[in-house]
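User: Continuing from earlier, I have the next pair ready.

Assistant: Great, send them over.

User: Here they are, in order.

Assistant: Folding the first of the pair now:
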Amino acid sequence: MQPRVSVVIPTRNRPLLVGRAIQSALTQTFKDIEVLVVIDGPDEASSIELAQINDPRLRVIELLNSRGGSGARNAGVTEAKGEWIAFLDDDDEWLPEKLELQLQVSKNSNYLFPVITCSLIARTPRGDYVWPRRLPSPTESISEYLLTRNSLFRGEGSIQTSTFFAKRNFLLNNPFNENLIKHQDTEWVLRASTLEDVKFEFLEQPLAIHYIEDRQITVSSKNNWRYSLNWIQNNKYLVTPRAYAGFILTHISPEASEQGDWKAFAFLLNEAIKFGQPKPIDFLIYIAMWLIPRGTRRSLRDFLKLKLNLFTQPVSNI
């Protein structure tokens, strides 16, 4: 029978973590689902682990060659049978009511292609806190919401892949870009937000857990500021001048500073001013990224979050 929702989980070489993600999908309060795990290339350990899960709603797709996270997601969408697609990263997990609540929002949407997202619990060894800390205003562009900061803390604006919920036919016509090694998810959101009859709709309730420190070092998480700069330059048409400057000064600068590439200091600053519209907070964060060591910045952020009560209680009902 055709399920209402298809859950797509791309994975590679993380058999224990993907089991946790699958369990959180199979125990959703909304039961009319299938769970497609796309193994991105040869991975015997994951194949063996998944073969031990006894649930008819689970389907495993093994790609002959690795296509990356975007390619694995696209392959899952192609094979899916559901009307709706929900993505889940293999090292994240969902709270039990996620799909049920997102489906309710979709029924009340006035748009042909709503993309429903939600808040999440960002889990680190230092504590849990909720992302995003605010929702976009009605007149705020998605690019500024995602790429700029109005405070010193991360997670102010966030749309993370494990919260995506969208129609399959829309995703078939608007797949993830498989040529990118970084920023694939952000690029998809920016591109989708410019299309007619598309609306990003937000559930403020945190319905997923996003593990920060548990993630393995991948190509997309390595410091490569020149790649990120080239990406934003090529996608300038998708962002506002404020978002362009904000991404350079608050997202690219940490990568350059951690590499100790001081030649980039003046270059990136000039790029942001010449082609963007930075605000004072952007300059403040930029200077802090270069002058304050990462460990010190992290300790200071954690101290201020604790004082401002930005941490949440640990989630234990999964």
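And the other member of the pair:
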Amino acid sequence: MTAQAIVGGVLGTIAMTTVIRAASELGWTRMDIPFLLGTAVTSRRDRAQAIGYALHFVIGVIFALLYHIAFAATGGAGWVRGGAIGLLHGIFVGTALVNVMLPLVHPRMGTPMSASDSTPLLEPPGFLLLNYGRMTPVVTLVSHVIFGAVVGLVAASAESNRTLTS
């Protein structure tokens, strides 16, 4: 289970990051998850991106492990089940975690309570992450569904291989 979760987490994070990056290049969103994560650790923009990518992949593997626990609890894996879990994950991220919690704990993100003379590195995401663009909620959901589908597909493939070799 652990090896499949690591592989699924890395592949899912690559797919998710690709979708978000493409959406950014198309002008659909200004969301940059590695930059958000990296600036929580450093104020240096050049280092923030590299640190953020490393953190993003570590977090992707951790979430893949949680998805595997959910697969075990719900009777198996698959891309549809993974995508459904990803949808729930995306809804939670977009409505509670990033929207509400991140501005409270991120040391370099502005909040509605920021002083007018301060200059934070990041603006807060706002309601449904809309400060990062009108399509950001859709990009967030789609990218999380894709992440979950990839994790579920890798897990189902591993289950299938175990069944064939048994």
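Worth noting for the second one:
Residues 45-74 form the longest helix (30 residues). The radius of gyration is 17 Å.
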